[in-house]
C-alpha cells in the first residue's frame, strides 16, 4: 500500500546522497585558486557568511516593512 511512497523516498534519498558525494569529491580535487571568491585579485579577509552586527536586524526589518507598502 505504501510501497510507492517508500520507493520515492528511497529515490529522493539516493539522489541527495549522490549529489552530496559528487560535491565532496569536486571540492577535494578542485584547485583553490579557481574556487575561492575573488575581490579584484585580493584574498577574502573574512568568511562570506560571517555574522552581522545586531543593529542591522532592526534596519532590515524596517526596510522590509516599508518595502512591502
Walkthrough of the structure:
- The chain is an all-alpha fold and 69 residues long.
- 65% of the residues lie in helices and 0% in strands.
- It has 3 helices and no strands.
- It has helices at 3-29, 32-35, 55-68.
- The longest helix is centred in the first third of the chain and has 27 residues, at 3-29.
- 0% of the residues are buried.
Main attributes of the structure:
single chain, 69 residues, mainly alpha, 3 helices, 65% helix, flat
Mean pLDDT: 80
Count up the helices: 3
Which runs of at least 5 residues are low in confidence (pLDDT < 50)? none
| Strand percent estimate | under 5%
Helix content: 55-70%
Largest sheet: none
* Amino-to-carboxy terminus distance: 49 Å
- Class of secondary structure makeup: mainly alpha
Query: What's the gyration radius in Å?
Result: 21 Å
Order of helices and strands: HHH
Number of beta-strand segments: 0
Shape: flat
Offer a quick outline of the entry.
The chain has helices spanning 3-29, 32-35, 55-68. With 69 residues, the protein is mostly helical.
Detail the topology: elements first, then pairings.
Blueprint: H1 3-29, H2 32-35, H3 55-68
Amino acid at each position: 500500500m505504501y510501497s510507492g511512497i517508500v520507493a520515492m523516498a528511497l529515490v529522493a534519498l539516493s539522489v541527495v546522497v549522490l549529489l552530496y558525494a559528487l560535491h565532496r569529491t569536486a571540492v577535494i580535487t578542485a584547485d583553490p585558486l579557481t574556487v575561492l571568491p575573488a575581490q579584484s585579485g585580493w584574498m577574502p579577509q573574512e568568511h562570506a557568511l560571517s555574522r552581522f552586527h545586531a543593529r542591522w536586524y532592526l534596519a532590515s526589518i524596517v526596510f522590509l516593512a516599508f518595502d512591502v507598502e
